[in-house]
Amino acid sequence: MSKRKTNVEKLREIRDKMNEEVKDMDVDEYLEYLKSQSTLHTKKWWAEKEKSQNKSLSKA
């Protein structure tokens, strides 16, 4: 029987993968890496979604 991964486990895997990719980079390489990441847009979207959910919860 296969166990499905939780969101936390998935995020930890992503974090570990990114840490491994940037481990030996200098500052300039790291900044370029951050600029090239398509996931940064996704993170911004999730932050905005969470912010709007918090506002709607506080109104309830």
Automatic annotation (TrEMBL):
Record's keyword terms, sorted: Coiled coil
Q: What is this protein called?
A: Toxin-antitoxin system, antitoxin component, ribbon-helix-helix domain protein
Where does this protein come from, organism-wise?
Leptospira santarosai
Ranges in coiled-coil conformation: 1-28
Q: Which domain of life is it from?
A: Bacteria
